[in-house]
């Protein structure tokens, strides 16, 4: 937890989203030198250097295309093979969603490259539903949401493999 997080009264900081294919957090943060090679290699510019210089995925900057350039640029070997699933992240819709407040908005659905967000027909305002089996966690919906109502959350591997 950062001092800033503590001083703002949040007992838990925002979860740090490491680049796709990054190894587990503890060994990653212990071994990463903060050189920035993976950040510079990202053609989508969705990787940034966070506190301490370590790389972080920022979905508000746009969508990860899963090109693998970040993993290929790391001399420290802190990434799993790009043939594996990049990560176990899926989109979550929060209470700030405009559709849940009666405002017509389909921005997340329209931004999603895998059609993982649907609005089921309804007699009232349809609300977004994330189809976990289609969602890659690329972040396109987050960057496209005018209300900032979406986030990425780690799913357990069992839920993904089901």
UniProtKB/TrEMBL annotation:
Q: For binding [4Fe-4S] cluster 1, which residues are annotated in this chain's numbering?
A: 32, 35, 38, 42
Localization per Swiss-Prot or TrEMBL? Cytoplasm
The protein here is known as Ferredoxin-type protein NapF
Q: What is the native source organism of this protein?
A: Luteimonas composti
Q: What is the recorded function of this protein according to its Swiss-Prot or TrEMBL entry?
A: Could be involved in the maturation of NapA, the catalytic subunit of the periplasmic nitrate reductase, before its export into the periplasm.
PROSITE patterns recorded: 4FE4S_FER_1 (PS00198), 4FE4S_FER_2 (PS51379)
Instruction: Please tell me where this protein is predominantly located.
Output: cytoplasm
Q: Where does [4Fe-4S] cluster 2 bind?
A: 64, 67, 70, 74
Instruction: Note whether Iron occurs among the keywords.
Output: yes
Q: Which UniProt keywords apply?
A: 4Fe-4S, Cytoplasm, Iron, Iron-sulfur, Metal-binding, Repeat
On the tree of life, the source organism's domain of life is Bacteria
Binding residue positions for [4Fe-4S] cluster 3: 135, 138, 141, 145
Look up the record and name the cofactor or cofactors this protein needs: [4Fe-4S] cluster
- Protein family: Belongs to the NapF family.
Subunit organization? Interacts with the cytoplasmic NapA precursor.
**Domain 4Fe-4S ferredoxin-type positions:** 19-52, 53-84, 126-155
